[in-house]
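Batch job 17 of 40 flagged for manual review because the log was empty.
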Amino acid sequence: MEMNYHGHRIQAVSREKPDSNRWVVEINVLYPEVDVEKNQRFEGPLDGFASKAEAESWGIEIGKKWIDDGKPDLHKS
């Protein structure tokens, strides 16, 4: 699943966890910043989701929230 949001491209790609019938999601937010395109990567919760659609919808919402929160640095403790 992919969408544009406030000049950012949010991608949510899910995959089924082996032997679990659960889905995990990887989120990428791509955005321009001073002559380069940056990428922020997230992963979904370890316990996953019941469906591919649920995982990807959650991923899109997490990407939007990160953007709305001002793109905070996730490496700060």
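Reviewer: the log was empty due to a logging misconfiguration, but the result itself is present. The CA atoms of residues 32 and 38 lie 6 Å apart. Unflagging and moving on to job 18.
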